[in-house]
Amino acid sequence: MLESPKLNISRSADDDLVIGFEGSWRISQGLHSLEDVEKAIASAPGLRRIVFDSGKLTVWDSSLVSFVIKVLDFGRDKNIDVARDGLPEGVLKLVSLATAVPEQKDARKRAAPIPFLAAIGTGTLKILSSTSEMVAFLGETSLAFLKFFRGKARFRRVDLVLFIQECGAQALPIVSLISVLVGLILAFVGAVQLRMFGAQIYVADLVAIGMTREMGAMMSAIIMAGRTGAAFAAQLGTMQVNEEIDALQTLGLSPVEFLVLPRTIALILMMPLLCLYANFMGILGGGIIGVGMLNLSLIEYFTETKHAINIVDINAGLFKSVVFGVIIALSGCMRGMQCGRSAAAVGVATTSAVVTAIVFIVVFDGLFAVIFDVLGI
Amino acid sequence: MNAQAHIEARDLTMAYGSFVIMRDLNFTINRGDIFIIMGGSGCGKSTLLRHLVGLKEPARGQVLYDGVSFWEAELEARKQLMRRFGILYQSGALWSSMTLAENIALPLDEYTDLSSNQIQEMVSLKLALVGLAGFEDFYPSEISGGMRKRAGLARAMALDADILFFDEPSAGLDPISARRLDDLILELRDSLGATVVVVTHELASIFAIGNNSVFLDADTRTAIATGDPHKLLTGCEDPKVRDFLTRGEAGVAPKRAGPAETCRVTGRL
Fold first, then answer.
1. Cβ–Cβ of A250/B82 closer than 8 Å?
2. Residue B195 contacts residue B6 (beta carbons within 8 Å)
3. What pLDDT digit, counting tens, does each position of B127-160 carry?
4. Count of CB contacts below 8 A, A vs B?
5. A251, B53: Cβ pair inside 8 Å?
6. Is residue A284 predicted with pLDDT exceeding 60?
């Protein structure tokens, strides 16, 4: 059992304030405040000196050192001499070590309050600069694509095959699951309404049009943004941290050609295929409800589906999925390339890649809805 | 050795935005030199290296390669120049998605007309030179830190570079491995005739391999000494340089032996 730390404050004959330490001074027993010493000094004007007495001290650690430094600082402020010789040798050494280098006044970071207008200004400038970064990245990628079409782009074909596999075949399980469920939900929502009119058969139309025009492209894009876009950002971000991108640059290889191009091409090639697959799985999901809940026959359901959609609906979805593929690849790669040089920055890059991709996917989907409506597609 | 300027820095000022890291750096690196960039932690040594290899544009001033100003040259000319660099990054910076062989093969594949068999031969040679023969099919994550550094060196040498840059080559290595790497650097310089630029603050390395140097000082934000580190040790009277080169051991009296130009005090003190 440790004895509790005690502080004995007394005055010696020749007007010194004696601070006596007693018992064990351990951090686990809390830190002493300076209150008692301050009180003692306030009640004793004409004090000349503070001395320490550590005769009854048994054990000590940083808690004692910190207390002594507080007393020293206090003494300096009040112009009272503090004699250090009564301290244990170890404490003395640590105290002089801690006070050897004076505090660097301008090293402390202070969060100065920013005036409201200044905050708006900085915010605007930030938006402007991030927009210009985005445009610059788009420009660089476009140039890389031009080079690619002229057959001059330099990247490893092996990488392209690997990315095609990664964002094609390996995405099938999750796309299957989500699309079947989305088709199921669409059918379910429609069934509740349409059954009231005895028009159950139109559930097939609803699901078919909903999947091919909207949900197939949309859901596969959202899945790929979370799955592949995030992976791209994390890969490139980590490469940035490891100086791997620097190594490419100093070798005269363009990181955009070498890293961004194969990823973007892979997604552009795979997104329409995934979308088509998602369409099919969604219709299948609708069929489950049609057959299982609405007592339609399988033949009936699929004949109705065939009547409901035409090639234009499917193409509209496929076209959107290509655009979404570009959006996902570019936002993933851009955030990765902009990544800072720390582990935390990779996390930020990944998050912001997914957010950027989803925002642009939804915005573009809205735009396409309006444009298709105007064009009568 | 008749000195022939290979790399020159003229009034080089480095800054991140408005934050100036070093200003008015002037030094000359001769062909065949092993040039040490030294200074305390965080004084901008690696940043200087990034400026020299063309990763960061100087805020002001020039970097000349054989008299050609790097940053005023056309992009193609710059790329041409950069192709002559071999760079060993602090962490090795091997491309993690490729095996060691693929890492070393990439520059060869891009810039030479060798067939894939010939490239394999070159790869094996370079790996053998750094003592990693047989590790062709390992990924960077499967080997130790010291091995990664050596593999990085093999990649830096892939195109038989004119100028080799090393960013803290011995950081994180045990003394014996660090010593071996130093010997390797010396041998490469002697056999390839390359110019070597090394960022380091390992005193043992500085004296073992360096024959020219620049000392960056974080307080005055400029170079306070240039020249052969051995001569700086005996001839330089600047207390900061002396402290650094003697590990802060006081009482080593300056002998005033070296000629005055070995310690050109260029800073505004």
1. yes
2. yes
3. 998 888 889 999 999 998 888 888 998 999 888 8
4. 50
5. no
6. yes
> B107 vs A251: CB contact, 8 Å cut-off?
yes
**Residue spans per domain, chain B:** 1-15+22-84+162-173+192-269, 93-160
What's the whole-model pTM score? Answer: 0.80
Domains of chain A: 6-103 (3.30.750.24), 145-375 (no CATH)
B/e letters for B194-209, b = 16+ CB within 10 Å, e = fewer, are bbbbbbbbbeebbebb
Q: How far is it, in rounded angstroms, from Cα A101 to Cα B50? A: 32
Chain B partners of A239 at a C-beta cutoff of 8 Å?
95-96
- Any CB–CB contact under 8 A between A36 and chain B? no
A248 → chain B, closest CA residue? B95
- Measured between beta carbons, which residues in chain B are less than 8 angstroms from residue A253? 106, 110
Which residues of chain A does B155 touch, with a Cβ-Cβ cutoff of 8 Å? 247
Domain B1-15+22-84+162-173+192-269, what fold?
Answer: Rossmann fold (3.40.50)
B87 touches chain A (CB under 8 A): yes
**pLDDT tens figures, B217-233:** 888 888 888 888 888 88
SS3 (DSSP) at A6: strand
Q: What is the pLDDT of residue B257?
A: 41
Any residues with CB less than 8 A from the CB of A349 and at least 6 apart, and which? Answer: A233, A234, A236, A237, A335, A336, A338, A339, A340
- Digit-coded pLDDT (tens) for A123-140: 999 999 999 999 999 999
Type and span of the H or E element at B22: strand B19-30
Residue B90 touches chain A, beta carbons under 8 Å: yes
Calculate the CA A370 to chain-centre distance: 32
Q: Do A238 and B96 count as a contact with CB atoms less than 8 A apart?
A: yes
Q: How sure is the predictor about B256, in pLDDT bands with cuts at 50, 70 and 90?
A: very low
pLDDT at A6: 80
